[in-house]
Amino acid sequence: MKKLTIETFVEELASNAPVPGGGGASALVGAIGVALGNMVGSLTVGKKKYADVEEEIKTLKEKSTALQDKLLQLVEEDAKVFEPLSRAYGLPSGTDEEKAEKAKVLEEALNLACSVPMQIMETIGEAVSILEEFNEKGSRLAISDVGCGAICCQAALRAASLNVFINTKLMKDKENADKLNEKANALLEEYKKRTEDLFLQVESGLKG
What are 149-177's pLDDT values in tens digits? Predict the structure, then answer.
């Protein structure tokens, strides 16, 4: 999936193919958000004006590259975890035994389908902290890209959360569903605010 051209990925996204979908798209948007911060780092390294923070910037870039790779891998993983869910819906349910087996398999598949968007949200949380540091220490000439990265990360975070909630809504185990929702909501509450604050800070500085 991650080896597709941009054009092909978008075409596949627009088609009736089951993957890529919202989860994969959110991971890709998140990777783009991280890369925008990483670019600020690239434009800061080697500049005399920022020599005192160069080693910190290099460390941030290493972390960013790792997160980019992880999010791109999650594009792949999201496609993989959707397949069992798709198969589960197609299981026979003519007899009580078949219904029970289908319900069991479906519950397992819903849990699996939640796992990747939750990882996307957690990874975005790590990325936000790095973007905040790029905003503090990175080249002022590229600071608009921190704002772009922040808003991309917010979009990825919120999009991934919907892919958690659509699966928890269908779960029969409401206690487990509530725990997953609580975790997703906590990530949303913290990082939606932080990405919004970061975007507004960059926007205000550019307008001012």
Answer: 999 999 999 999 999 999 999 999 999 99
- pLDDT, one tens digit per residue, over 94-142 is 999 999 999 999 999 999 999 999 999 999 999 999 999 999 999 999 9
- The CB-side HSE value for 77 (13 A sphere, CA atoms) comes to 18
Burial letters 109-147, b for 16+ CB under 10 A, else e: bbbbbbebbbbbbbbbbebbebbbbbbebbbeebbebbb
Handedness of CA 114, 26, 39, 193 (dihedral sign): negative
Flag whether 94 is in a domain: no
* Token pair 């790029």 in the structure block, residue: 134
Alpha-carbon distances, residue 158 vs 22, 34, 80, 153 (angstroms): 11, 15, 21, 9
DSSP 8-state code for residue 171? -
Q: How many CB atoms lie within 10 A of CB 67?
A: 22
Q: Is residue 65 part of a domain?
A: yes
Q: Which residues contact 175 (CB under 8 A, 6 or more apart)?
A: none
The boundaries of the domain holding residue 26 are 21-80+114-207
Total domains in the chain come to 1
Residue type, 144: S
Q: How many CA atoms lie within 13 A of 195 on its CB side?
A: 28
The first and second tokens of residue 136, run together, are 């503090």
